[in-house]
Amino acid sequence: MKWKLLFIPLILAAIAAMSGVVMWLWNAVMPGIFSAAQHIDYWHAMGLLVLCRILFGGFRGRHGHHHGWHHSHRERWARWQAMTPEERAQFHKDRGIFCRPKPEEKSE
Hints:
Radius of gyration: 24 Å
Distance between the termini: 74 Å
Helix content: over 70%
Largest sheet: none
Strand content: under 5%
Structural class: mainly alpha
Number of helices: 4
Shape: flat
Number of strands: 0
Order of helices and strands: HHHH
């Protein structure tokens, strides 16, 4: 129970520290790259951090995701290695359907 009570302030401190790092990095890098970029304050940095987490990282924790991307990547690689050259060619052919626009049907 004592660890659970300590967990919340540690999470809040980590968010505060990450927001400070985002603010510092933004103010150090972005105005030099983009002349229209302005310096941001702490609260905008925290909002930017939350927005990036929503768009790119999500809010899922590490619990239950021990394998994650590496595990699924290994499975796909093992399936690829088990394919014959004909199956690989068919895979590329089938995959190409998603990358090309559908031909428009002629109406009479």
